[in-house]
Amino acid sequence: MISHTLTPGHLDLNTLRKINDSAVNLSLKSSAEAQIAASAQTVQNVINEHRTVYGINTGFGLLANTKIADSELELLQRSIVLSHAAGIGEYMDDSTVRLMITLKVNSLSRGYSGIRLQVIQFFMQLLKSEVYPCVPKKGSVGASGDLAPLAHMCLVLLGEGQMRYQGEVISASQGLKIAALEPLTLAAKEGLALLNGTQASTAFALQGLFRAENLYTQSCVIGAISIEAAKGSRAPFDARIHDIRGQRGQIDTARVFRELLSEHSEISQSHVNCEKVQDPYCLRCQPQVLGACLTQIRQAAEVLLCESNGVTDNPLVFADVGDIISGGNFHAEPVAMAADNLAIAIAEIGALAERRIALLIDSNLSTLPPFLVENGGVNSGFMIAQVTAAALASENKSLAHPASVDSLPTSANQEDHVSMATFAARRLNEMANNTQGVLAIEWLASAQGLEFRAPLKASEQVEKAKALLRKHVSYYDKDRYFAPDIESANMLLAQGVLCGFVIDNPLPSAH
């Protein structure tokens, strides 16, 4: 478990990545308490003065013009949580819920939501106790906030719903007992403040971002292995080429490849005077393609970091002047578009890797034995492994279709344009799994290709990457049950074992 003292609005990507990977003991900087209290008091003033303000003493959505009596305000907040907990499907992973709670605490602690400190502290105690609400993955269109997911997250405040502790699903009452908590009665506006917001979409998108970062880094390493295995040229990575174009992602990616490949190796020296003029794009254009992916990752990171620190519920309370203003910060269009861009990057990383596999198994292009195996004909080698990679890459092409361009009106046309951000972000995990599978197969294929270049050696970093794989998967000397090899490589990539090979890391969450 990590410990973090939260200054509201100042989370960074590195901290968010750590919270995604590990349980967290979150505490709040004491200086935030005054703003939180002032915001809650501003809401109470509305009730004391018998004013009518949306979200405090009115209905919601199309029922905004319905005035609610003071005696029913607590029931109103309870009712909105219960009625909006209408999600469906498998439960989110604990890591997703942990991020979602962290983001909600960060947003509420800014002091613009009219919510009491004890509600915020309730969620921090859940995090500390590692007891997480069970939240279905499906049921949000990413506008008016992630209403259904956040309602499921907040059910436990009322002692309702289910929770998960150490992998076991338990009742909310059992979970609260473990966390030494009692159910709360929500005050005016608190239910709406908890349900409005983009925290589910953003949590999914952040996880997609972190996976995209890992895929980018590990694809650079594996791509470098393929260059050596295919006797590719180092000339396309010359800094001068990339500097005069000026694309930052491309420049940084070329530098990564130069570091991985070094100036030369025994393999590269062996074909200095070869007749081949140019390599295929999948080798030669890696800085251009992966650099473009890096640019998308960086842009998405900028948007998601901003969203992680933003206030996205409604209405918003400006306690310093006593104003409560209804707006639309809950609309998750920025998250949806960032997720769509990440989807494109993830798909392209996999598409390029699949083409490198196809090159390696084609003896006309790679000058390696057909399908990377001795005694071809009797042995099929990597023939169908490449087919699997093609299937995964092709599947990602469909999944990469932008979700943000879709919209289906809800709430009797009051919420007439929605972002679909939750799906846009949620599908990134499946896409990342597909691309990771392609990279696993390429890692096996490129390492196999290097074996045929022996006794010549590749660059030091490339040899280390091959040796790391060989600790778990032996040389493919003849046909054997192939799936376990792919699974071993896949599990290693899931652990991010090649990420450390990139020393001067260009990724946003590394800093």
From TrEMBL:
Q: Which organism is it from?
A: Pseudoalteromonas carrageenovora IAM 12662
Annotated positions of the 2,3-didehydroalanine (Ser) modification = 144
Protein's UniProt keywords contain Nucleotidyltransferase: no
Query: Could you tell me the superkingdom of the organism this chain comes from?
Result: Bacteria
E.C. code:
4.3.1.3
UniProt entry keywords in alphabetical sequence: Cytoplasm, Histidine metabolism, Lyase
Q: How is it modified after translation?
A: Contains an active site 4-methylidene-imidazol-5-one (MIO), which is formed autocatalytically by cyclization and dehydration of residues Ala-Ser-Gly.
Task: Indicate the family of this protein.
Answer: Belongs to the PAL/histidase family.
What's an example GO cellular component term for this entry? Answer: cytoplasm
Q: Which residues form a coiled coil?
A: none
Q: Which Pfam families match?
A: Lyase_aromatic
Task: List the GO biological process terms.
Answer: L-histidine catabolic process to glutamate and formamide; L-histidine catabolic process to glutamate and formate
Q: What is this protein called?
A: Histidine ammonia-lyase
EC top class, as a word:
lyase
Is Cytoplasm a UniProt keyword of this protein?
Answer: yes
Protein's cellular compartments: Cytoplasm
**InterPro entries attached to this UniProt entry:** Aromatic_Lyase (IPR001106), Fumarase/histidase_N (IPR024083), HutH (IPR005921), L-Aspartase-like (IPR008948), Phe/His_NH3-lyase_AS (IPR022313)
Any one GO molecular-function label of the UniProt entry = histidine ammonia-lyase activity
